[in-house]
Amino acid sequence: MDARVRIFVGAYGSGKSEVAVHVAFDLAAAGSRVAIADLDIVNPFFRSRELRADLEAAGVWVIAPEGELAQADLPIITPEVRSALGETDLALVLDVGGDDAGARALSQFRPFIPEGQTSMAMVVNDRRPWTDSIAGIERTLRRVEANARFRVTCLVSNPNLGEETTLEVVMRGHALICEAGRALGLPVDVLVVTEAIADILPPEATLGVPVLRLRRRLLPPWQGDPFRLAPPRDRRTHMMRLENEEQRARNAVRAHGGKPNGEPH
Predict the structure, then answer these.
(1) Beta-strand (E) ranges in the chain?
(2) pLDDT tens-digit profile of 222-233?
(3) What is the DSSP letter of 114?
């Protein structure tokens, strides 16, 4: 995944947006000039555009619809993506949607993607029904390639069950994904694990694959801010309500001598 243009594809639930965001942050931290283009028109809950503020604070150029159009699909950002593909000093990360429609969104850029400077990694989570076997991984890969009009150059091993991931889940899944890589003639570039799993992962369990320590940033609405997908007007109302509640709580503390609920000093 050392190419100037790094494309990340994967079936729904593979974790490809999380990996794409992590790579963008790492490149920026290393001093590279970086952009990430959100081409994911499939999943409204786990898209790299949801971290726009954090990415931009890290110096990453985020190419995605903004403001009231934040949940819009691809066509309105097409000129920016084409421009970024032509900037030879720019490290570009493309976060591509997880199904046939998402892969087709990439195909329109095929004439502008620089040969010899591009990698396309398919992120694989064996705990998803369509990639839980070597045959399923191959079917998914061939379908993505056909629709994207670009060949996958490597696999990214991301075996997990979210918060229920165990060491056994990672080891069994990674072994399957490595076997699929051998069957497909593709390298497995990295094994993605959380910090907690990385600390207990036996070196031999990596099967010689470098480990990428991941901190989850993309959370579903039921685990994070439930208003993050709402229009800006609704978000402002929600934030004002929270600020008012916090101010009332501070006032109540002061009214009780600096202790919550009237507790004595």
Answers:
(1) 5-9, 34-39, 60-63, 91-96, 118-124, 154-157, 188-194, 211-214
(2) 344 444 444 444
(3) P
Cα angle value 211/24/205 (rounded, 5°): 10
Quote the CA–CA distance of 23 and 27 in Å, as a whole number: 6
* Exposure on the CB side of residue 177, measured as CA atoms within 13 A: 35
Nearest-angstrom CA–CA distance, 158 and 162: 11
Cα 34 to Cα 9, 64, 208, 253: the distances in Å are: 19, 14, 29, 46
Q: Is 38 helix (H, G, I), strand (E, B) or coil?
A: strand
Strands 34-39 and 91-96: parallel
**28 CB burial (10 A radius; 0-12, 13-18, 19+):** buried
Query: What does the block give as tokens for 147?
Result: 């629709």
| pTM listed for this prediction | 0.77
Residue 141's closest CA among 93, 92, 183? 183
CA distance 206 to 86: 36
CA–CA gap between residue 195 and residue 254 (Å, rounded): 40
